[in-house]
C-alpha cells in the first residue's frame, strides 16, 4: 500500500456513508470516502422519496430517527444549505378495525420514546388530509414533527460540509478488496489504487454483503426492489406524508404511501405484496396503473395529476427488517452501517452520528439496551412484535 493513509475509510457515499463521513470529519478524523458512482447519493439514496419519520414501532429506529429529524430540521440554520426540509408530519389514515387496533397499540411505546403522535378521529383526519375519501374513514394517527427532505439536496449538502472538514471523496472508484493483517484492518484496494486505513466502515447499501465477503464476514443483507414516481408540481395543499396500510384490492400491494414535497410535486411509492427479491431495477409497466388507482381512491381530486417519471430501486433488507449498526468483533477496525431496509434515508443522519461516536469515542449515541437491537451478532430470525414498515 503506497497510497495515502487515513484514520477511516468509508465505503459508499450514500444515505449513511455520506453523513457518516461528515460526522467523522467533524470529530477531527482523517476520512477517505470511496464511491463507485460519480457523485454522492447516487446509489439507493436517490431512489428514496425523502420521507422522514420517527414514528416507528422499534425503539432503535425511533431513537435514531429522532436524531435524524433534529439534524434535518436544523441543517439549514447550522450550515446555510437548503436540503428541501418540509415539516408536515406523517398521517396513517385508518379504514378498518384491525389496523386501528395495531396503530393504537403502538402509541404507548411511541409516547414512551418521546414521539409526538396521537390518534385523531375522522373529522380531524379530514382536516389534516384535505379531500380524503370519507368512506369507512375511522380516524388515524398523525405525528406533526415528521417531514420530508430532498435526498439529492441532502447528499450534496453533506458532501460539502464533510469536505469543508477535510474529508476526501474519491468518486468513480470501486472497492475491490479489504486488507486484513493479524486480525485487524490495515487498508483497502480499489480498481484505481490502494490506501492505508486504521478502520473501515461498510456503508455499501445493497452491496454490503459483497463488501463483507472481502473479509469473510457474512453480512445478512439481501436487496429487494421497490418502485416510486413523481408528478409535475401542483399548488401546495397536502402537509403530511400519507401511509395507507390497507392491502390493495388488486392483490398486488401490501400498502402505499405518498406526499407532496416542498416543490409541490406528489411523490409516491408502494410496497408490493409479493416482494421482488434481487437487484433488478428496470421499471415495470404495472406500477403506475396500480398506484394511480390507489391514490385516486384515497384523494379523488388527484385524478388530474401529470406524472413526470417513475423509477425502481432497492431496499437493502436484513432478515428482521432492522439495520445493523455495530463493530465486527471478528476483525479489529471493521464497522458496519448496513441493512437500512426501506428507511435508510430517514435513518441516515441518526445512524451516521451513532457510528461516528462509536468509531471515534468507542460509545454509541443511544442507550446500550436500544443499541443492542442493532447488533451484528443478534438472532436475525427471532420474531419481533408487530411493526410498522
Ligand atoms: C422506491 C424507494 C423509495 C424509498 N423511499 C424512502 C423514504 O421515503 N425514506 C427512507 O428513509 N428511505 C426510503 N427508501 C430506502 C432508502 O433509499 C435506502 O434504505 C437507503 O438509501 C439505503 O442507504 P445506504 O446508505 O445503505 O445505501 P446507498 O444510499 O445505496 O449507499 C451505498 C453506496 O455504496 C456504494 N458502493 C457499493 N459498493 C461499493 C464499492 N464496492 N465501492 C465503492 N462504492 C460502493 C454505492 O454506489 C452507494 O452509493 C426508499 C427506497 C426505494 C427503492
Topology, number of strands: 19
User: Nearest-angstrom radius of gyration?
Assistant: 21 Å
Ligand identities: flavin-adenine dinucleotide
Uncertain stretches: none
Principal-axes geometry comes out as globular
| CA-CA gap between termini | 44 Å
Helix/strand structural class: alpha+beta
The level of helicity is 25-40%
What's the total helix number?
9
Kindly report the average pLDDT value.
96
Strand content: 25-35%
Task: Walk me through the structure.
This protein has 389 residues and is an alpha+beta fold. Helices cover 28% and strands 28% of the residues. It is built from nine helices and 19 strands. The chain has helices spanning 17-26, 59-79, 97-112, 122-128, 151-164, 208-213, 287-298, 344-361, 368-371, and strands spanning 5-11, 31-34, 51-52, 90-94, 118-121, 139-143, 147-148, 168-170, 175-181, 184-190, 194-202, 222-233, 241-244, 253-260, 265-272, 276-277, 307-317, 324-327, 334-338. The strands form three sheets. Strands 4, 5, 6, 12, 13, 14, 15, 16 and 17 form a nine-stranded mixed beta sheet that branches. A hairpin with an 8-residue loop joins strand 13 (241-244) and strand 14 (253-260). It starts with a strand and ends in an 18-residue tail after the last helix. It binds flavin-adenine dinucleotide (FAD).
